[in-house]
């Protein structure tokens, strides 16, 4: 039996493949290039080329589980993803672990629509709904930290349960490999709640220079996101940041333990282990 890892070259999928390899479990990576780090097996797969959807099943007829990372920064996900989910089930897939986002309630744009589609299917699933990744400080904010000593958001004084992509990968590993029969919606959060001001202050201490949190209005943040994302997806991002400001992620963090998957890695540990990334 084989686990198909979509997004297997990304932040969560890359760690997941390492965990599967260490556990000696068979898996196949799907990537646009058809390549994965040695010695992993990989096939070409592109969400925007449906003719590639059959490739994994042609390469391995034993695929029974899928880790599904949605097309990145895509607003209208369901028309892209639904045909693949249907194909996978028709090929014998029995469990799908879907990565969405903490605020992606079932039916919500971009993320929750795919969750609702999956929940209507007669298969096992886990929906992993992580909070904001600690690793965003090394992707989204790498330039602004290096060049301007700042991060920016419309989250105001709202608290975030920052999660490490390593913990998300561990949640994926656990839900893909559990012998339990599962149909789960999991809120994936880190071990502590921190505002952007607090995160910037921790990073300042680690780097030995002051990193500021520039508090954007929703309009300013919309302008910033629109430079790299479509207007529709930028609006989703801004709405999620405004919801943070209103205390939504703090509320999720306080949900009953049965709804939560709590990661181990603290934001400060991530900053300390990676401090060279932000060196000027
Ligand atoms: N960052 C956050 O704070 C945060 C929070 C919650 C949820 N999320 C969600 O996490 C997901 C991203 O996961 P990640 O961080 O593990 O991935 P990632 O590091 O952003 O990497 C993206 C992965 O998707 C693959 N990919 C990109 N375009 C593709 C395409 N057209 N067809 C097939 N594969 C494609 C890439 O592989 P190749 O380039 O090799 O093809 C890569 O493996 C997104 O859905 C995001 O919304 C992020």
Automatic annotation (TrEMBL):
Cited InterPro entries: Ergot_Alk_Oxidoreductase, Ergot_alkaloid_biosynthesis, NAD(P)-bd_dom_sf, NmrA-like
Domain NmrA-like: 2-270
GO molecular function, one term: oxidoreductase activity
Pathway(s) the chain acts in: Alkaloid biosynthesis; ergot alkaloid biosynthesis
Keywords: Alkaloid metabolism, Oxidoreductase
The organism's place on the tree of life at top rank: Eukaryota
Key word Ion transport present: no
SUPFAM superfamilies: NAD(P)-binding Rossmann-fold domains
GO biological-process terms attached to the record: indole alkaloid biosynthetic process
Pfam family name, one: NmrA
Protein family: Belongs to the fgaFS/easG family.
Matches recorded under NCBIfam families: ergot_EASG
UniProt-recorded name of the protein: NmrA-like domain-containing protein
Record organism: Agrocybe pediades
